[in-house]
Specification:
Strand order of the largest sheet of chain B: 1-2
Order of helices and strands of chain B: HHHEEH
Radius of gyration of chain B: 17 Å
Structural class of chain B: alpha+beta
Radius of gyration of chain A: 23 Å
Number of strands of chain B: 2
Distance between the termini of chain A: 48 Å
Strand content of chain A: under 5%
Distance between the termini of chain B: 33 Å
Number of helices of chain B: 4
Structural class of chain A: mainly alpha
Number of strands of chain A: 0
Shape of chain A: elongated
Largest sheet of chain B: 2 strands, antiparallel
Largest sheet of chain A: none
Helix content of chain B: 40-55%
Largest interface: A-B, 23 and 20 residues
Oligomer: heterodimer
Number of helices of chain A: 9
């Protein structure tokens, strides 16, 4: 008789979160207990706890890095909201005429603004890891803030719809969260 | 005891379970021991999280056993309490006993009674 198999979705989740690879002994313990007669509900409860404790530990080990991302993202959001509130992007959009030369001007301005932001972004990125932890935090926050603002400007130059602006802002925030998770892998604060 | 070496309630439970189990202390028996002695269900994930914290503090050491088929080819990880772990448990015990002493209705070994 083949041994009992634990719920597939639960084991998929454990693998997906990288927990099975990080802690094979814990996975072995779960399997041993399950095969000794524990229920599928028990296995699910254990899976939820393993995922939650894994996430909590991930955050606790990288709290400085994640705080930096939160500060950078919040600052960028606050400024972007202020720009939206006072219609700054649309003033820039309206600054040219509908002629082809105005389009070229807006494209040029967007590229220059983005390039300036990303030069500073890359400079900070290349230097922050050598700094002490408390300065690292400021640097990471600054680089995220500058990088996102640059990307925001490059998009905002071509928009005159507030809803499109909100959509881009939301997308950028998701992008920011993705960056934070990617960067935090293998890094300890 | 320094501030950084204060032990939480669950950490003390895990350390005491390790001491009771001796050489056979890995995830499954540790969680069973705590469940039997404390009467509450314990998640293996919480046990491992506590053990990793304790290992980082140098209070626990671990070694890998041999992989087995019943565990899907995964090895057991055996834990033991280190000298400094033992010292911290003793200090925590002393501190708790001192705090317990003289509290009306909470003396060790006496049945629960009304606080006078």
């Amino acid at each position: 008789m083949s041994p009992r198999k634990p719920p597939r979705l639960a084991t998929w989740l454990l693998n997906r979160f990288g927990l099975a690879r990080q802690n094979p002994s814990l996975m072995g313990d779960l399997l041993e207990e399950f095969r000794s007669g524990r229920s599928a509900a028990w296995f699910w409860r254990q899976t939820v706890v393993v995922i939650l404790t894994g996430l909590a530990r991930h955050v606790s080990l990288r709290r400085r890095l994640l705080t930096a991302y939160a500060i950078g993202g919040s600052a960028e959001t606050a400024i972007a909201f202020a720009l939206w509130r006072f219609h700054v992007p649309w003033q820039l959009y309206a600054s040219g005429s509908e002629a082809a030369s105005a389009l070229i001007f807006r494209m040029f301005l967007a590229v220059v603004l983005s390039a300036l932001c990303y030069v500073l972004f890359d400079f900070l990125k290349a230097h922050y890891r050598a700094l002490p932890a408390n300065q690292n935090m400021v640097m990471i926050a600054s680089e995220r803030f500058i990088g996102l603002l640059g990307l925001y400007w490059s998009f905002a130059m071509f928009l005159n719809s507030q809803w499109a602006f909100v959509f881009i802002q939301s997308w950028l925030l998701l992008w920011e969260v993705g960056f934070a998770l990617k960067d935090s892998r293998g890094v300890r604060s | 005891m320094s501030r950084s070496s204060y032990l939480g309630e669950f950490e003390i439970l895990v350390l005491l379970a390790l001491m009771r189990l001796g050489d056979d202390a890995y995830g499954v028996p540790i969680s069973r021991e705590i469940e039997q002695r404390s009467g509450r269900e314990v998640a293996l994930g919480s046990v491992y999280a506590a053990l990793e914290r304790l290992e980082e503090k140098g209070l626990v050491a671990s070694r890998l056993g041999d992989p087995s088929a019943e565990r899907g080819g995964r090895a057991k990880r055996y834990f033991r309490v280190t000298e400094s772990g033992l010292r911290d448990v003793r200090q925590t015990q002393r501190a708790l006993v001192n705090l317990w002493k003289g509290l009306p209705g909470l003396e060790i070994g006496r049945p629960k009674g009304r606080i006078a």
